[in-house]
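Repro case for the chain-ordering regression, as requested:
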Amino acid sequence: MSVQLQSKATQAASQADLANAIRFLAIDAVEKAASGHPGMPMGMADVAAVLFSRFLKFDASDPNWPDRDRFILSAGHGSMLLYAILHLTGYADVTLDEIKAFRQWGSKTPGHPEYGHTSGVEMTTGPLGQGLATAVGFSLAERLANARHGDALVDHYTYVIAGDGCLMEGISQEAISLAGHLKLSKLIVLFDDNQISIDGATSLSTSDDQLARFRASGWSVRRIDGHNPDEIATAIEEERQTGRPSLIACRTIIGYGAPERQGTEKAHGAPLGAAQIAAAREVLKWPHAPFEIPNAVLSAWRAIGARGHAERMAWADRCRQQGANVPKALEGETEIPATYRKAVDALRSRFAAERPNIASRQASQQVLDAIAPALPALIGGSADLTHSNLTHAKSQKSVAAGAFDGSYIHYGIREHGMAAAMNGIALHGGFIPYGGTFLSFADYSRPAIRLAALMGIRVIHVMTHDSIGLGEDGPTHQPVEHFAALRAIPNLLVFRPADAIETLESWQCAVDAQTRPSVLCLSRQALPAFRDDADGQNKVALGAYVVTEPQGGRDVTLIATGSEVTIALEASRLLAAENIRAAVVSAPCFELFLEQPEKYRASVLGTAPRIGIEAAIQGDWSRWVGDTGEFIGMTGFGASAPASVLYREFNITPSAVADAARRAIAGKGRGH
Amino acid sequence: MSVQLQSKATQAASQADLANAIRFLAIDAVEKAASGHPGMPMGMADVAAVLFSRFLKFDASDPNWPDRDRFILSAGHGSMLLYAILHLTGYADVTLDEIKAFRQWGSKTPGHPEYGHTSGVEMTTGPLGQGLATAVGFSLAERLANARHGDALVDHYTYVIAGDGCLMEGISQEAISLAGHLKLSKLIVLFDDNQISIDGATSLSTSDDQLARFRASGWSVRRIDGHNPDEIATAIEEERQTGRPSLIACRTIIGYGAPERQGTEKAHGAPLGAAQIAAAREVLKWPHAPFEIPNAVLSAWRAIGARGHAERMAWADRCRQQGANVPKALEGETEIPATYRKAVDALRSRFAAERPNIASRQASQQVLDAIAPALPALIGGSADLTHSNLTHAKSQKSVAAGAFDGSYIHYGIREHGMAAAMNGIALHGGFIPYGGTFLSFADYSRPAIRLAALMGIRVIHVMTHDSIGLGEDGPTHQPVEHFAALRAIPNLLVFRPADAIETLESWQCAVDAQTRPSVLCLSRQALPAFRDDADGQNKVALGAYVVTEPQGGRDVTLIATGSEVTIALEASRLLAAENIRAAVVSAPCFELFLEQPEKYRASVLGTAPRIGIEAAIQGDWSRWVGDTGEFIGMTGFGASAPASVLYREFNITPSAVADAARRAIAGKGRGH
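-- result from build under test --
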């Protein structure tokens, strides 16, 4: 279909013109910025020009058209390739002035493409491998949406440009393995196979047969000349029909056209300089001044940018025929259904009545069982720890190749690939992804979690076995630094609920957080319920709140999270026996607490000395306990033993907390 | 050679007996602990029995014999397989009582094998994929040592048992790609190809052809019946001779012998229970009581454990012939040569005299140029950022397949694989590995960095471009949370030097730190020298120290790290103009500062209000600035623009610091 879409306007400019327009905008912008990466846009311009001019389904006037093809620049350092195309095809955000302001403060053209910052940028890329792995999520979301809404409304491809760096990163294996397993037939990876990386020839560090590798994961593969438009077009056309994800290795020359730089690592990451630019203008027969695009070429590109308009209109008609809410659902802007709210309220009432003594991972299982049927946008999964993370809701059917009506994904032992795929599912729109692993393995997914935070997208990580409380598996599996490490990531919500109701409230916050990812840190071990308020005020949303306030003012405030709230409560009872008045504060989410009004925060923290309790390293607890307080937690790695033994041996106990409280009070004086 | 090593004692017990001894120790220990993973030891017992009885070169009486074969249990949850073998072969650490104390506090048999805790455990495993990737480092170190000391002294294999989890983790791809490229012919991976993972059949989440995948990276591959001792032996024997790394996919049955658990995920991670254990005793014809090993079987195993003794003695003889220091060098206990100290002193004098205004990554380059020739144990490398990290010393030749006399490794775009390989090189002994990437990509290598810290080994990470000071590449490449996240890892030294001399001193600390890994966080941008003391006292080793102390007492103390020390110094001059007396403290290493005596710390921190300055999120800075201080840094992600613009826009400037100082003084009162 799309080959025929090639318009008359396109034909007025040659394919070489289209590509050279990309090349020289990249060359000129990098030169003006005195910074950037010309090599990749110059090398992949021919491939990109064929893809956009002849295949990509898009409409530059509506960057968010839900049924557009997605284009992911996994090799994000080649950002000028994308910006050049966005400008040429007429995306409103990317004017010529923005191109000239490449890599400058406040421009729409930052060094690497940034999602949410520039229309037409599907995701933030730069950290290598992320684009490819996220594209698997995009492509999977397309199939999930297709299974729900049908071919007439959901039928688009995901195209990726990836370089050697993307393919050498380990995450790429998790991604291609998952994509091959699920037979994501509408995923096409264009590999910039230029045989050069930053250190020099790729032969310095790799001897992989990439085609054989992808084939081993069930992909359709081929190698082409990346400077031959016909070969490129034939490859894309044919690979769209294989029923499998496709790798097209495009043999290209990095820095194509700059005679003394091309084919070497020198073309990668530095401006070409005046002499090489002049030479490239000669070689490529592009006599135009910097940033100047001849009218015929610009018109041709603009026609490409408008080409999808009619198709988009036809799609909108089909949508309207199927119901008013469909387009919104496809965009992922579905309002949370009323049934969800009802399910939450019912579960809350039950938790309040039953006060269950269960692990927060078990409470989370009950939350999922309750909300999954009411929230069809929810797509669950686990990195092969389903029975431990308790992430599989009763109502969920597994997703498999050819069974995309399911809503639970067996991600395999691929934490990083899972996190990236979840990013893609969220970015695609229409779904709320969540996925489980052990909290200790947050380290494996960290680059993708960071990217979700940077992009500001709703992705929910369910991370169980959140402390030494996991017991016998020992220090490799016991997170001690992970709260601090995750809290350090800006724009990420880290929840550590302390009982069943807090777990439910944390889930509510995570579902409500439309512009940031969340991590739910859940216990392996049982946590006694202390909340029984059925009124429905979400206290976790306050970040921290007073659980018990002593009569007659505070002598000390005990602040704890998760499983340690119970310890704080027990300590307060020990202290009460000595007439020491201890308030207990639960602090399930530091980030949300920091966003509360100063007055509320002061009322929670109080003026008495403060003791912090968390079975983890101190991290930023000084912020809460202050100069006169103390922190009770871990000072190093954990150990292998039953959980109760570990708490005792590491001295995270009610009596240790009470001792610390007495010390703090002695130092500061009671009542202060 | 080693097939002939099969002793008479071995033959008195059948191969099945040897394997069943492993199986039942694992079954009984897990049952007693009421926790653990019987499935893998039961499935791989036949393979392990053949490997240890007929091939592995080791001597249980000397677990640290440098020329021993290394055995890496990458599937670390199967720890009882290893503990059973260590006990059976007579390693002193693992008595029957320790087996009975499996997973208990203080035992030698924790849930996952822990390096440094139990003799015979070559590395800590549990986080999947790490063992396989670290084994690449072991195997590479063997080749490096071989190139330096010859076949007579260095000639050993690295064997790995890896499961589906290890092979699904992305790090495995980085590892196998690097191993294949370097043709690490003495690396043999025994894949526990049991087609089961925790969620169920591996077909739930993967369709990879693992043999084809490894073949694509240049490995020799084959599939065998993992319960057929002859097939196992033939495979190992033949694969030792291929000149390439080898994958032997051992088709096994998880939980082999437990009739109602075997071949299912139920066998993986829970005790079998009395009924299944009784049934397994019947099926496997092992009528012995729990923990009871018949004498003939134990003798056979003990003979296997002693088999390598003569070979070790002969090796020691050959060592002595080559020089007294050789064994020590092979063990990695080389004393730091005097020439190293001289090189350091000379460079220090030059830095003190020249006061260079250079980036700390450039200073680091000069350090490497100076020390690499004097410290032959140093093995450098970079994850394809050599020209940016400046990690290649002039004297270093690249390592390549067949050129193992080199000392610089082009790790490729494989940060995680690099970090794990460095762990393996350090663990093998004889070398001090360092490797470079951008600090932002510490996230990619984090699981391996954590493992190095947990194991307590000397690995040096050179992480450049350590802040928004990297400029135009933007927020994907700008670390803001990475100091906090790395400082959160116990037993890891995080250095952020502020000028050339501090960079040199940081390198010295990292080289001296024999029992912990280091991260050197280095700037892209130039940092003016402020240190010119040539006396050689290593002030970085103090963690933090006073750079300038005002006359007449302090009104405020400005504490900064790295590139922000310059800002603090400028702020102190602004304040001095108003007669505000500001001390400036450089704090290049929080961890070392925390280890200083209380009195020293108090003298550095002072009693005046404190302002912390670091171009990063606040993290644990509250600890240093206290209730009356203030932190000047980042509150979110960075942006793409020239570095100077970013510092201005994010308000990390001398005047912002001076403002904060004035505020703090106003709140606290001058002179307090």
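Ordering looks correct now. Residues 387 and 436 of chain B are 10 Å apart (CA to CA).
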